[in-house]
Amino acid sequence: MTHTPEKEAVIVTVKAVPSLFDELAAATQAMMPETREFPGCIEAHLLLAPEREEMVIFQIWESSEAQSAYLTWRAERGDFERLGELIHDEQIFRTYTLG
Amino acid sequence: MTHTPEKEAVIVTVKAVPSLFDELAAATQAMMPETREFPGCIEAHLLLAPEREEMVIFQIWESSEAQSAYLTWRAERGDFERLGELIHDEQIFRTYTLG
């Protein structure tokens, strides 16, 4: 018997530091091709609400393990630290299974 | 010159009435095929977090007009009213442009 891993969806909601929304959106946009090419990534979208200075990263992964490996890779490169200077307050990170 | 409408993404976050999560998820799941077939729907996913009794509907539309037409259609059928009995507090409805 083979184990079929459950797909995982991720919604990350981020508020930009006031006046730095465009910079945050551009920096995140530039990261999207790597995200989409990462092993196990089924799809990834960047969603923008400039009027609320809010940005959402939406991703679907083949498994939670693939998603974790991606987060580790980003962290090791220092990508989160770099974006952190553009982010206001805490980001909200939520995971879901696909219905 | 032709006008290219901007794609619109929608994230609806819903908390179930305690103990009615499974019922809410099943009722929403049953609606997804119609959503996906609605004119202008590019994709639609149902995301589940049973441990938080939380559900997210994620959709991408060809335009905000297509998304509005869909909401009107659902409202006229009474679908929101029917689901409303299973929902705890207000749902959070947010729209975004695609980055």
From TrEMBL, chains A, B:
SUPFAM superfamilies: Dimeric alpha+beta barrel. InterPro entries: ABM_dom, Dimeric_a/b-barrel. The lineage of its organism: Bacteria, Pseudomonadati, Pseudomonadota, Alphaproteobacteria, Rhodobacterales. This is ABM domain-containing protein. Residues 8-96 form the ABM domain. Pfam families: ABM.
